[in-house]
Amino acid sequence: MAKDAKSSNADVTALPFEKALAELETIVQRLEKGDVALEESIRIYERGEALKKRCEVLLREAEARVEKIARDAEGRPTGTEPLDRD
């Protein structure tokens, strides 16, 4: 990654999940359209990778928090249900 790309992606670590995901979706849409110049495509792809990693970290942290909440004082599970019920 180029030096300026690293600095432009540094702010990703401060983004909340919703903003990171929204920006990532915008990048995907732009790349899927295919009307972005090569250099710009590479730059926004790199940013997209940084945003994806940020979202993954935040999701892992949220999952850990939910698991912690779902246990009693002795660490036993307390009547939990899967988060992705359909």
Structural descriptors:
elongated, about 0% strand, about 65% helix, 3 helices, mainly alpha, about 90 residues
Structural class: mainly alpha
User: Could you give the distance between the termini?
Assistant: 40 Å
Classify the beta-strand content into a percent band: under 5%
Q: Describe the largest sheet.
A: none
Output the number of helix runs: 3
Instruction: Return the average pLDDT rounded to an integer.
Output: 84
Q: C-alpha Rg, in Å?
A: 18 Å
What string gives the helices and strands in order? HHH
Relative helix content: 55-70%
Find the count of extended strands (DSSP E, 2+ residues): 0
Shape designation? elongated
What does this structure look like?
The chain has 86 residues and is mainly α. The chain has helices spanning 3-9, 17-33, 38-69. α2 (17-33) runs antiparallel to α3 (38-69). The longest helix has 32 residues, at 38-69.
Architecture blueprint of SSEs:
Elements: H1 3-9, H2 17-33, H3 38-69
Quick synopsis:
With 86 residues, the chain is mainly alpha-helical. The protein is 65% helix and 0% strand. Helix 2 packs antiparallel against helix 3.
